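Figure 3 (text version): structure tokens given as input.
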């Protein structure tokens, strides 16, 4: 998790970070600190070892380490981030390499486990058109709009395969609504084997959605707009000794919670609203999931 001491909106690189006039939003840093600390405590109560990425005033996006990269065994493929976040990579490397993982870099645009994550027997890779982020004129009020685009390019897959051994099939899913600019904002695999899938169907390209329905069948759970807008899919799946837990953002509907619990998965909610409303990232965005790592033995 990334220390939120310098959390702010600098680049304004997704639709949540700006108001309707295109102005970057201000962050209530005290509230963000309170929410971050409460989530960390909750994760540690669940048995998670939390490693903190130190804060840096020039790189406030460090609070979202799901974008740091993705792990394959002893290898860690670092992301090639947007220009406003590219400097974060060096800080992630400093934290990850001492854990015994070998870091690799990419040339193609790629934003880590936010766009490449396990789902059942395969990996999902989500992507969309990468565009130059800018303001463009339009008819309406205000007379301009912000172009955001998506974050990962399919070209990254060839690079990743050339660096590490990828044993699982990779299923590509194209996204079509830049409000859901990462796969982990609109899809979430969960369960002991990540065999269930939450999907906000409206923002998934139709052919890809048909493929997901075919693969998951009745294990696919569509999200209603209200839950999707809360980034219910941006949740953290934890499996301990075959008991699965899904850590989700506060405010999800009782209907959705009931459907997840009917799958035999415990639901725990945390309040990270300041990170979603101002930065466009919720529970999973705030966690870089390194999987199982050795725990140092106590000297006592």
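Below: residues designed for each position.
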């Amino acid at each position: 998790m990334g220390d939120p001491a310098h959390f702010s909106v600098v680049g304004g690189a997704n639709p949540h970070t700006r108001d309707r006039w295109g102005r970057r939003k201000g962050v209530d840093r005290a509230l963000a600190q309170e929410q971050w600390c409460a989530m960390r405590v909750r994760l540690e109560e669940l048995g998670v070892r939390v490693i903190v990425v130190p804060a840096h005033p020039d790189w406030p996006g460090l609070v979202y380490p799901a974008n740091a990269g993705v792990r394959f065994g002893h290898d860690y493929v670092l992301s090639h981030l947007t220009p406003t976040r590219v400097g974060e990579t060096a800080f992630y490397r400093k934290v990850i390499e001492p854990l015994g993982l070998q870091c690799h870099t990419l040339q193609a645009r790629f934003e880590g486990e936010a766009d490449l994550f396990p789902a059942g027997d395969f990996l999902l890779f989500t992507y969309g058109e990468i565009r130059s982020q800018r303001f463009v004129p339009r008819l309406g009020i205000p007379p301009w709009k912000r172009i955001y685009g998506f974050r990962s390019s399919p070209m990254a897959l060839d690079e990743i395969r050339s660096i590490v051994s990828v044993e699982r099939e990779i299923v590509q899913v194209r996204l079509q609504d830049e409000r859901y600019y990462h796969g982990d904002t609109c899809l979430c695999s969960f369960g002991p084997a990540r065999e269930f899938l939450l999907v906000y169907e409206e923002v998934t390209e139709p052919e890809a959605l048909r493929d997901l329905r075919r693969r998951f069948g009745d294990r696919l759970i569509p999200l209603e707009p209200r839950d999707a807008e809360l980034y219910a899919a941006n949740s953290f799946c934890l499996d301990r000794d075959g008991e699965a837990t899904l850590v989700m953002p506060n405010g999800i509907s009782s209907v959705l919670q009931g459907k997840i619990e009917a799958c035999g998965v415990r639901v725990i909610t945390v309040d990270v609203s300041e990170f979603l409303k101002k930065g466009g990232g919720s529970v999973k965005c705030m966690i870089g999931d390194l999987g199982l790592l050795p725990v140092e033995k106590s000297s006592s």
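The first strand starts at residue 69 and ends at 72.
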